[in-house]
Amino acid sequence: MFKPLLRHTGTAALCAALLAISCSALAADLKSGLKIAFIPKQINNPYEVIADDGGMAAIKEFGGVGKVVGPSDAGASSQVQYINTLITQRQDAIVIAANDANAVVPYLKKAMGQGIKVVTFDSDTAPEGRQLFVNQANAEGIGRGQVQLVSKLMGGEGEFAVLSATPNATNQNTWIKWMQEELKKPEYAKIKLVKIAYGNDDDQKSFVETQGLLQAYPNLKAIVAPTTVGIAAAARYISSSSSKGKVVVTGLGTPNQMRAFVKNGTVKAFQLWDPNQLGYLAAYAAAALSSGKISGKEGESFDAGKLGKRTIGQQGEIILGPPTTFDATNIDNFNF
Ligand code: RAM
């Protein structure tokens, strides 16, 4: 019955397109009109903007109502007022990149107490603060991978510093812990982590911290910034200083922010995942929870649109996939 109807409309192409759009929502069998709000670490961080855009694209795909609200700084409690407002607005789900593992927990618990589903993504809370955590990649793999990369770039010896985000950022702190674990291996005996500095995911502060590191540690051979804000600021500082070509800059960055520094030789290699896919996956996870398709238990699976079927791991964690290493040979293949 359906096919002839399509032929008669004379707008078969349009219908096919509409069908394709609603297909993933139908396949996932999600409730329609779900109200899902994203709270990034900070509203103006380019990485978070890409992630939020991915979330909004997914929500559009399954016919929900999405929005992004959040603070302009990554302070520990800066997200609390936004959570409270979303509770009042009776959202179906809150998807949050937490600025602190504990500060937001009482408020997220209040939300869950009122039937609002809570999904963390990018940066987790303590497990009691959420039902699911959508992680960009395995945290141990990210941390160990950063040390493996910087060691290679430093030729296996010398002093390096970490330029992190805020001192309370769950994601960076977990990665740094794994970096320190990796450094215990005998092959890194000649490498020394001399300082962990914090740029607070603020461009200017990260820039100034970079300058401070170079002054305080004249023998510094590398800076590892496991934050897209930090690595871009460090590269900008070093690219116009006498340290260019002497001090390695690496870490986690977006290809679009780092392209110029790879082209001008300041940065040889760095890593990241696709933030857009991270937000997209988090939105599908929130919708599956809100539609009663999953409850958050280990082993449950759900349909994540173009990312296919995804399964919940231990402690409610869902992993997007391994990071990519970008360098001069491949950076132009990426546009985010
Ligand atoms: C910054 C933020 C974010 C982190 C990336 C790598 O944009 O700190 O949380 O995942 O860097």
From TrEMBL:
Entries under Gene3D superfamilies matching the protein: 3.40.50.2300
Protein name stated in the entry: Autoinducer 2-binding protein LsrB
Main location: periplasm
Locations listed in the record: Periplasm
PANTHER family per record: ABC-TYPE SUGAR TRANSPORT SYSTEM PERIPLASMIC COMPONENT-LIKE PROTEIN, D-XYLOSE-BINDING PERIPLASMIC PROTEIN
GO MF, any single term: carbohydrate binding
Domain spans labelled Periplasmic binding protein: 36-293
Keywords on record: Signal
Highest taxon above the source species: Bacteria
UniProt xrefs under Pfam families: Peripla_BP_4
Family: Belongs to the bacterial solute-binding protein 2 family.
GO cellular component: outer membrane-bounded periplasmic space
